[in-house]
Amino acid sequence: MRGSSERHNTEQVPNRSEDLDEPSTPLPDEIGDDSEVSVYTSSDDSEADRGRRRRKTTVTYRPTKQQSDIPYFESGMIFKSAKEFKNAVVDHSLKVHREVEFAKNDKTRVRAKCADASCKWLAYASRTKDMDQFELVTYKPDHTCYRKFTNSRANYKVIADYFIKTRRDSALSMKAKEIKLHAKQEMGIEITPTQSKNARSKIVKHFLGDYDSEFIRIWDFVKEVRVSNPGSTVVLDCPDNQFKRMYICYDAVKKGFIAGCRHTLGVDGCFLKGPFKQQLLSAVGRDGNDQMYPVAWAVVDVENHSNWLWFMDLVKKDLEIADDGAGWTLQSDQHPVSV
Fold first, then answer.
1. d(CA 247, CA 154)
2. Structural domain boundaries of the chain?
3. Confidence at residue 275, expressed as pLDDT on a 0 to 100 scale
4. The whole model's pTM is what?
5. Beta partners for 266?
6. For residue range 293-313, what is the model confidence (pLDDT) as tens digits?
7. Burial bucket for residue 181 (CB in 10 Å: 0-12, 13-18, 19+)
C-alpha cells in the first residue's frame, strides 16, 4: 500500500523542470571550444546600436521640375559634379533675386556666397574622398540682403535655356524684344538688348541647328544621295565655295511619275525661314487618284528668271519631256497653261 501511494503521489506531482523555459543563450561553461555562439553584454549591445545610429543618411540633390520652384539645399547633400552644384546655385540666385558670386571655384571645391558683404548666405561644397561627387559641407540658408532685379548670372545662355524649357512650342518665333519683355515679367530680371539678341540666336541654334556646320557638310549629303539612291539627279552649284543653288529629283520619283502620272505639272516658289532667306522652287504632279505627287525641288538664292530656267531645264530632262512640250500642261500660281 505504501509503495502504491508513493507511486500515486509521484505521478500527480508535475515535473517543474520540464515546465520552465530553458534559457535562450547557453551559459559560458556549456559552450564548447568549437562553438560559434557569442555572448554579448548590455554594454556591447548599446555600443553596436550607437554605431548603427551614427551612420549618416545621404541626401542627393534633385533638380527642380517646375521653373517656379526654388532649389532645396541642406548640409551633407550630394551633387553629381561641381557643374551641377554651380548650376543649382545659379538657379537659386535667379529665383530668389539675389546676386551670388563664386569666391572659390576649382576642381576640388566650390564656395558660393552672396555678393552683398553684409549677407550671411553661404554654400561650400567639396569633392568627396571615396566618390567622384561633391558634398555640400557648409550651408547658411538665410539671406539678409534686399532683392535685386539685375543679376550678372542671368547671361544669354541662362535666358535662352529658360525659354527653351518653358516655351518649347513658341520659343522659336519669339523676337528679341519679346524675350526682353518676358524675361522681366516671368524671371523678374532686366536684361540688355544685346543679351536678348544673343539669347534669340541660341534658341534658333537649339531648334534648327548650326547653319554654318550644316552647309559645310553639304557635299557629304550630295555624295550620300548618289550612293544610296542610284539614278537620282543631284546638282549642286557653289561658285567660289559659296552656296548658290541645289536641285534634287530622286530616281524612284522619276520612274513613278513617268509610269503612272498625268502630263501635268504645278510649279511654284516660296520663301524659306532662316538666317539666309533662300527660296524653294518645286514641281508637283498628279497621280491616278488625282492626288499631289512631288517630283523635284530646288533651293536657290533668289527667285528670278535665270533660276527658273535652270530648274525647268533639269525637270524637263528628268521627266523626258520633248523640246516642244506637246501634250503637257503647266500650272503656275494656279493658272493652267497648255504647252
1. 44
2. 59-140, 156-209, 215-333
3. 67
4. 0.50
5. 284, 331
6. 999 999 999 999 999 999 999
7. middle
